């Protein structure tokens, strides 16, 4: 009897342990109180490095029979549009192919510009191109200034990007041969189109060669992340803006941000009153201080409509209480387009609600100041 009783007790213990260790099925605690969205910024912080300029290395359009055939060079007057994508400005320029008798060499492709042209005196010539831009986005302009001391010890350009101005000069008096100097500048676009101009620097005297090649215009690496925003609207499900008893219909957006490895990086609760709009920058609010210290290239943003307003403990989900959307930037051959995409609704289960709250509490505790997103602008 004793042996049999021992086996029965062991069976009960094992059975009890198995029951306790087996998770219960997740129960939906609120329909349409949960929204999810993905974000992407391309390769790390860098956005797709498409050159937004047409024919930035001046390879397209060179004539089969240039007007200076012995030099393998085309002389272009002010107003010429022979270089595909560009208009000649300020003064005559020389469009030089390789090989050429001058001994000058391009840095990208087989052609380059000499902004002193054949006239070799001020005012030097230049080129201009109008490019599609997006207001509020920063762009990086880069180009090679070419110099050869056989024609002058200093080479350089001045230019404009919209209302912004820039200057880039390079000097080499001791080392013979061709020299390339790459310059880059960041500019903030303020209009849907922006005029770029690059001309020879007229302050440079006694030079017969100001080379220009490999002009690129790309979106500045951190710009897309800073400009990407999430918009969250309180739909007014639990009260009106004038209803003080319901805290003016306040619902919190409990926000949870994950990286591509499914690690929670930041979380916070952002109160929004009825009919209110909250606008948050992905970079400056939702990823301002990630737990890992690493700014992700891609990830997921989850938003729970919660009247309890505690990101560490979701207690009062509000069905259809919030609606969220986010920006996306799409890169064409020479354009950047901005589109708005809605978050996708999903049922909120008790398992997911507990996971989000508990993980958030861990992230904020472990982060010692990190892991806490901020709430942007709006009410």
The SSE string, one letter per element, is: HEEEEEEEEEEEEHEEEEHEEEEHE
Number of strands: 21
Adjacency order of strands in the biggest sheet:
2-4-5-12-7-10
Radius of gyration: 31 Å
Structural description of this entry:
By secondary structure, this protein is mainly beta. The chain has two domains: 177 residues, no CATH class; 151 residues, Jelly Rolls. It is 13% helix and 40% strand. It contains four helices and 21 strands. The strands form four sheets. Strands 2-4-5-12-7-10 form a six-stranded antiparallel sheet, with no helix packed on it. It has a five-stranded antiparallel sheet with strand order 15-14-17-1-20, with helices on one face. The longest helix has 20 residues. The N and C termini lie far apart (73 Å).
Topology:
Layout: H1 2-21, E1 28-40, E2 73-76, E3 87-89, E4 93-97, E5 111-114, E6 126-132, E7 138-147, E8 154-161, E9 164-171, E10 179-188, E11 193-200, E12 211-219, H2 223-227, E13 229-234, E14 251-259, E15 264-272, E16 277-281, H3 282-286, E17 298-306, E18 322-331, E19 336-342, E20 344-349, H4 350-367, E21 377-378
Antiparallel strand pairs: 1-17, 1-20, 2-4, 3-6, 4-5, 5-12, 6-11, 7-10, 7-12, 8-9, 8-11, 13-16, 13-18, 14-15, 14-17, 16-21, 18-19
């Amino acid at each position: 009897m004793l042996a049999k009783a021992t086996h029965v007790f062991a069976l009960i213990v094992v059975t009890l342990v198995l029951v306790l260790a087996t998770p219960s099925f997740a129960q939906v605690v609120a329909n349409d109180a949960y929204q999810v969205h993905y974000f992407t910024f391309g390769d790390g912080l860098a956005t797709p490095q498409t050159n937004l300029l047409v024919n930035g290395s001046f390879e397209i359009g060179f004539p089969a029979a240039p007007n200076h055939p012995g030099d393998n060079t085309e002389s272009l007057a002010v107003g010429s549009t022979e270089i595909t994508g560009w208009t000649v400005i300020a003064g005559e320029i020389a469009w030089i192919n390789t090989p050429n008798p001058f001994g000058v060499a391009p840095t990208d492709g087989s052609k380059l510009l000499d902004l002193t042209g054949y006239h070799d005196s001020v005012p030097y010539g230049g080129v201009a191109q109008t490019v599609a831009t997006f207001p509020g986005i920063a762009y990086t302009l880069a180009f090679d200034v070419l110099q050869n001391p056989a024609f002058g010890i200093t080479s350089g350009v001045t230019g404009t990007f919209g209302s912004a101005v820039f200057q880039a000069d390079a000097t080499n008096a001791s080392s013979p041969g061709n020299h390339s100097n790459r310059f880059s500048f960041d500019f903030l676009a303020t209009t849907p189109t922006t005029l770029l101009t690059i001309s020879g620097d007229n302050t440079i005297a006694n030079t017969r060669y100001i080379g220009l090649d490999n002009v690129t215009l790309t979106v500045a690496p951190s710009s897309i992340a800073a400009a990407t925003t999430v918009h969250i609207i309180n739909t007014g499900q639990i009260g009106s803006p004038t209803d003080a008893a319901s805290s003016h219909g306040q619902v919190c957006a409990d926000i949870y941000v994950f990286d591509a490895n499914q690690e929670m990086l930041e979380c916070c609760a952002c109160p929004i009153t009825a009919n209110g709009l909250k606008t948050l920058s992905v970079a400056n609010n939702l990823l301002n201080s990630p737990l890992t210290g690493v700014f992700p290239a891609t990830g997921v943003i989850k938003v729970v409509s919660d009247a309890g307003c505690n990101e560490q403990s979701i207690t009062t989900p509000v069905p259809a209480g919030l609606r969220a959307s986010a920006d996306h930037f799409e890169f064409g051959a020479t354009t950047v387009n901005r589109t708005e995409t809605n978050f996708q609704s999903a049922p909120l289960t008790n398992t997911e609600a507990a996971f989000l709250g508990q993980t958030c509490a861990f992230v904020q505790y472990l982060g010692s100041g990190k892991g806490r997103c901020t709430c942007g602008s709006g009410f």
